[in-house]
Amino acid sequence: MMRTPLQFTIMMLHSDLDKGVGSVKYTLSGDGAGTVFTIDETTGDIHAIKSLDREEKPFYTLRAQAVDIDTRKPLEPESEFIIKVQDINDNEPKFLDGPYVASVPEMSPVGAYVLQVKATDADDPTYGNSARVVYSILQGQPYFSIDPKTGVIRTALPNMDREVKEQYQVLIQAKDMGGQLGGLAGTTTVNITLTDVNDNPPRFPKSIFHIKVPESSLVGSAIGRIRAVDPDSGKNAEIEYMIVPGDGGNLFDISTDENTQEGIIKLKKPLDFESKKAYTFKVEASNVHLDHRFHSVGPFKDTATVKINVLDVDEPPVFSKPFYTMEVYEDTPIGTIIGAVTAQDLDVGSSAVRYFIDWKNDVDSYFTIDGMEGTIATNELLDRESTAQYNFSILASKVSNPLLTSKVNVIINVLDVNEFPPEIAVPYESYVCENARPGQVIQVVGAADKDLSPAGQRFSFRLSPEVSAKPNFTVHDFRNNTAGIVARRSGYSRRQQELYFLPVVIEDSSYPIQSSTNTMTIRVCRCDSDGTILSCNVEAIFLPVGLSTGALIAILLCIVILLVIVVLYVALRRQKKKDTLMTSKEDIRDNVIHYDDEGGGEEDTQAFDIGALRNPKAIEDNKIRRDIKPDALCLPRSKPPAEDNKNIRDFINQRLRENDGDPSAPPYDSLATYAYEGNGSVAESLSSIDSLATEADQDYDYLSDWGPRFKILAEMFGEEESYNPDKIT
């Protein structure tokens, strides 16, 4: 910055046309004209009327011109010129980013970089030394140094320890003019912090720690704390504790409290004052994060001794076992002792113990316990099939302090007594095919026993002695608790016998041996060649399909309805067919076929072609007639009226109707007559066609002498009244 006095002439202008008579006028325009600079209109001198500051404006551009004072016309062209402000050292160096904050690790070597500071000078750096700055430390030596030209701060002492001094404040000066006398200076503060490194091992403040613990302390509970001191901070101060293996340390465990870095000692196993009153072990503390640069300093761990003193506590009795398991046979007499529990007071000056059952439900009433001896006895009869296991608790209390009790579980298993005989497991019913082969296994059966079968329980199978003489079936024991029902013969038939009953004896292997006789029902069924049932009964047909009872009833109902419809339809057809046959004149049943020669009698089987008497429809359908033995006709002996033999006509008409409606009866009611009987007939000719005598003249009493086969005929013709033979045909 260059400052000038007011009305200081900085420049003079003069025109060659100016003769000094006042005819020329000078004018000034441009930067600062009239405010910073003025011009004398008569002489042309330019004056500065205001102080100049180079840092505000380093130069000004002005324009000057000479004009005629009368005409105001330019006498010469306008001239432009620049006024440059010359700098002087009027600005001190300044730290624009100060004050500064920096850090450097402790124990850093000499010359370790800390920070670089920078000061700026507003003076012109191209003119003189006004802007050349030099740095120096006014406060902070001998710990740190600074480069005079660059302003880089570095450590000046080795092994600066954070634990000794952590914070440093350094005062930095920047001076222009190259640091020469008379230069301007500026200062700033740099706050330097030594950061921590793990250069200190943990140390216990004392070598022995004493801890008192009641013997009733729970497993897993904290019983004491110890602490090692590490002057480092952060992760460098994290400590890990460990119990040194040795005598006494196996009952305890130690962990680190992350907030306080203390070692928390916990109980790993129960304590017992009566068995051991004190424990001594060593604990080692070490850093978690180590710095290899300081391994030479020494081991980063420390060891202390911990002594645990167990305090005696009045405790409840202690059972000899964590639980008790006992066994008793079912139906054991009431009052039988089945076992005992034992508890004792382990405290000094032990007290007597009393026993009680922890009553919770009615199950506990099955047993009693002797309060002084601890023996357990049955109080009721036990049944394994009802309850196989009992589980209850026994309480033991000290006589000296009944409030101190302990509990133990007792499990009583009820052993089985072989009281139930084995039985055949389902099914009790089987089937055999009509085409079964001898030796074929038709069913495999097993056994079931209500008793609890012990390991290795075996069942044996055999036939009952009552059927072992000549059985239709036998039993083959497979010796794996199963047996096979085996057919002894072939040719089973439902028509001969539909059901067989097979008594099977099953015997168990327990003591005492129990056996039972189980009767199996074997149904005879018709099967195909593969043994698949084709027909047996309704249940055998539909049960394999898996139909329910409702579905089976529905199917049977549908079958019944269909059968009714078929019967009605057949009845209507027969009635219609009967009417047609009765009215047809060509029906062969209305004709009597007469031959001129008589047959050969009973021995002649070729004389007459019976085909002419067959049903034409049966001939067309090529159906073979099946002869059916007629039912024996038993009519009561009665005397018909003499007028028209009404009973005989009714009887014959009834038989005609029955035979007309029966397609399986002999061929209709046609009658074949012969002129004479064959020579081989003992009764000779029975025909009355050629007889000249009337029926009244015939004597039929001899029919009674022919035996019971002619009894009915003798009764019919033995009446006093006679009837017309034409009515028979």
From TrEMBL:
Q: Which Gene3D superfamilies match?
A: Cadherins, TCF3-CBD (Catenin binding domain)
From which source organism is this entry? Phrynocephalus forsythii
* Chain segments annotated as transmembrane: 541-572
**PROSITE patterns in the record:** CADHERIN_1, CADHERIN_2
Protein name according to UniProt: Cadherin-12
Supply the PANTHER family for this chain.
CADHERIN-12, CADHERIN-23
Function description: Cadherins are calcium-dependent cell adhesion proteins. They preferentially interact with themselves in a homophilic manner in connecting cells; cadherins may thus contribute to the sorting of heterogeneous cell types.
Topology in the lipid bilayer: Single-pass type I membrane protein
| Record keyword Protein transport present | no
User: Which subcellular locations apply to this protein?
Assistant: Cell membrane
Q: Which SMART domains match?
A: CA
Please report the stretch or stretches of sequence annotated as the Cadherin domain. Answer: 15-95, 96-204, 205-319, 320-424, 424-542
Which GO BP terms, alphabetically?
adherens junction organization; calcium-dependent cell-cell adhesion via plasma membrane cell adhesion molecules; cell migration; cell morphogenesis; cell-cell adhesion mediated by cadherin; cell-cell junction assembly; homophilic cell adhesion via plasma membrane adhesion molecules
- Which one of the record's GO molecular function terms can you name? cadherin binding
Q: Quick one: a GO cellular component term? A: catenin complex
Q: What keywords would UniProt list here?
A: Calcium, Cell adhesion, Cell membrane, Cleavage on pair of basic residues, Glycoprotein, Membrane, Metal-binding, Phosphoprotein, Repeat, Signal, Transmembrane, Transmembrane helix
